[in-house]
Design a protein that fits this description.
- The chain has 580 residues and is an alpha/beta fold.
- The chain has three domains: 318 residues, ABC transporter transmembrane region fold; 147 residues, P-loop containing nucleotide triphosphate hydrolases (Rossmann fold, 3-Layer(aba) Sandwich), CATH 3.40.50.300; 73 residues, P-loop containing nucleotide triphosphate hydrolases (Rossmann fold, 3-Layer(aba) Sandwich).
- The protein is built from 18 helices and ten strands.
- A six-stranded mixed sheet has the order 6-7-8-3-9-10, with helices on both faces.
- α5 packs antiparallel against α6 and α13 packs across α15.
- The longest helix is centred in the middle third of the chain and has 53 residues.
- The chain is elongated and about 120 Å long.
- It starts with a helix and ends in a 5-residue tail after the last helix.
- It binds adenosine-5'-diphosphate.
- Adenosine-5'-diphosphate binds next to α10.
Length: 580
């Protein structure tokens, strides 16, 4: 268990291994240096108390000077050691934290759908600071304890094998109790970590959806939910502390017995002349320190067990596979914007039915194609596949005759823009939200905002384009957000533009604005209009009708009406007011 955990920590980042190697080396040197003052003190004492040595101050003085010097040297080396270690550790922390955020963003949409946002963030934050905490303890307690124990053992054996033996026998007994504590608390640790993550996920979710929580007067409901989980966490934590404290009495007991036995033995050895008085003091000083440090090891050890779960969860992020792979080296660019679906089938992982089944069609460059069908028929899934948020299970999707997987994400997603029903905005200015991630001049931003009919409402704000939109755009209406999303898409000069249910939740005026933008774009880029309101799509060059993931009809509006098939039937139903 402890080995797996150590391996997990070391594998977090290449810099971690380097950090531990260099720190263990420095720590060893430091512990060796720390041996010098007590050894010099022993020599001084032996000179001072032994009349046979005919001690004169002239002999002892240089020894005292050496003692003072060694004390100063120890402090100096400690300062240098801490400085180097701190700097390295902070760099490791930086690599781990930034690396994890990078990995989180690289993970498929799939991953994020399965993991609550708060849970992921709790893993990153808790994981990284707990790991840094662990490093501190390893650096300041564990390594020194390991080296100190080893050196003490060597010195004790040099002075007297009996002393060495006592020490050697007690260290494993102590370690036995230490590991026993870990085994006894394993289950409760798992429980409290799991519940803490759950709590964190629920709390974040409640705050993120605060408007819905309030709309339904569900503050108390959310409060109760989080409290139940938090209490489960707390109960397990307290149980872990209880078991840990009980075990600690055994660990401390072992150490106390060992200290007393060492002292009895050392005094006896001195009395029978095996060791000198100086050696007695050295033995007592070194073994006391070593035992005390061993006692401190339990704290690090318990912390390591706590961290085990954090590291494990943190590592889950690092180990999570990225199913949709980028091809960053590809220089292929989309120039025309033709789309071909060839026998494409796709199923979401946990579903039993295909979201798309054997879908085939082609769309020429600059054509406007509407994709219609009842909700759940697979329309949005097509967008997700086109943007490679998922890869199809079967068949291929080609753009400009090249398979999507042969484009780099940058070139693919740089040429396909989506305006969807749920517009995601960032807590920044309107201008920054339109530009999002690219540098654009004010003139350019103004141009696209006008095209998207966003300029009308932006210019009414006192701060215009510098107006802050609030977190996730809470200060804007649905229609306004939608128009910003169109401006954002247009700024990227896409070859393919997808409107995914962009108008379904808008008022008549906003819808008109968006239709106007769509009309202006017709014939200029390949337009894919996903809609379940049939009125939206009359002007499309072609209509693809999906039902239960299959293409059932393809043709112009008139052709499909004349066919008197599913399209005609659905259209009629909608005219009668039955939307789906
Ligand atoms: P539409 O856009 O036509 O309303 P979707 O493409 O969103 O339909 O959904 C097609 C099918 O896939 C539906 O049965 C839906 O429940 C399912 N589905 C959509 N998104 C997911 C998802 N993220 N995970 C699992 N199933 C999904």
């Amino acid at each position: 268990m402890i080995l797996n955990q150590a391996k997990a920590v070391l594998n977090l980042h290449p810099s971690v291994k380097q950090f531990f190697l260099s720190i263990s080396f420095l720590s060893m040197i430091f512990e060796l240096v720390k041996l010098v003052p007590p050894v010099v003190f022993k020599i001084i004492l032996d000179h001072a108390v032994d009349p046979a040595m005919a001690t004169s101050f002239a002999i002892v003085f240089p020894l005292i000077a050496a003692y003072g010097g060694s004390l100063f040297l120890t402090t100096l080396i400690e300062v240098i050691f801490t400085k180097i270690a701190e700097k390295r550790m902070r760099n490791v922390e930086r690599s781990i934290t930034l690396g994890t955020v990078e990995k989180l963003l690289a993970l498929d949409v799939d991953y994020h759908q399965e993991h609550m946002m708060g849970t992921s963030m709790s893993r990153v934050l808790r994981g990284s600071w707990k790991i840094v905490d662990l490093f501190y303890h390893v650096m300041l307690t564990l390594f020194p304890a390991i080296f100190q124990t080893t050196f003490t053992l060597i010195v004790l054996f040099i002075l007297s094998w009996q002393l060495g033996l006592v020490f050697l026998i007690f260290v494993p007994i102590f370690l036995f109790f230490l590991v026993r504590g870990a085994v006894l608390t394993q289950e409760t640790r798992k429980i409290y970590h799991k519940n803490y993550e759950k709590f964190s996920g629920l709390a974040t979710q409640a705050v993120a959806n605060v408007r819905t929580v309030k709309d339904f007067d569900n503050e108390a409901f959310e409060g109760k939910r989080t409290k139940t989980i938090y209490d489960k966490y707390l109960t397990a934590l307290l149980e872990r502390i209880r078991i840990g404290l009980k075990n600690r009495t055994f660990e401390d007991g072992v150490i106390s017995v060992a200290r007393v036995l060492t002292l009895i033995l050392a005094v006896q050895l001195m009395l029978n002349g095996t060791i000198t008085a100086g050696s007695l003091v050295l033995v007592v000083t070194l073994s006391e320190k070593a035992f005390l440090n061993l006692a401190r090891v339990y704290r690090v050890y318990y912390q390591m067990q706590d961290i085990e779960q954090d590291v494990h969860r943190f590592n889950n992020i690092h180990d999570a596979p990225i199913n949709v792979q980028d091809k960053p080296s590809s220089k292929k660019k989309i120039t025309k914007g033709t789309i071909e679906f060839a026998h494409v089938s796709f199923r979401y992982e946990e579903n039993e039915l295909d979201a798309l089944r054997n879908v085939s069609f082609t769309i020429e460059s600059r054509q406007t194609v509407a994709i219609v069908g009842r909700s759940g028929s697979g329309k949005s899934t097509m967008t997700k596949l086109l943007l490679r948020h998922f890869d199809p299970n079967d068949g291929t999707i080609l753009v400009d005759g090249t398979s999507l997987s042969d484009y780099s994400f940058k070139n693919l997603r740089g040429s396909i823009a989506v305006v969807s029903q749920d517009v995601e905005l960032f807590n920044d200015t309107i201008a920054a939200n339109i530009a999002y991630g690219i540098t654009a001049s004010k003139k350019e931003i103004l141009r696209v905002a006008k095209l998207a009919h966003a300029h009308e409402f932006i210019s009414k704000f006192a701060s215009g384009y510098d107006t802050l939109v609030g977190e996730r755009g809470v200060k804007l209406s649905g229609g306004q957000k939608q128009r910003l999303a169109i401006a954002r898409a247009l700024l990227r000069k896409p070859k393919i533009l997808i409107f995914d249910e962009a108008t379904s939740s808008l008022d008549a005026e906003s819808e008109k604005y968006i239709h106007d933008s769509i009309e202006k774009l017709q014939g200029k880029v390949t337009l894919l209009i996903i809609a379940h309101r049939f009125a939206t799509i009359a002007r499309a060059d072609r209509i693809i009708l999906l039902e239960e993931g299959e293409v059932k009809e393809i043709g112009t509006h008139d052709q499909l009406l004349k066919k008197k098939g599913i399209f005609a039937k659905l259209r009629k139903l909608q005219e009668l007011g039955d939307v789906d």
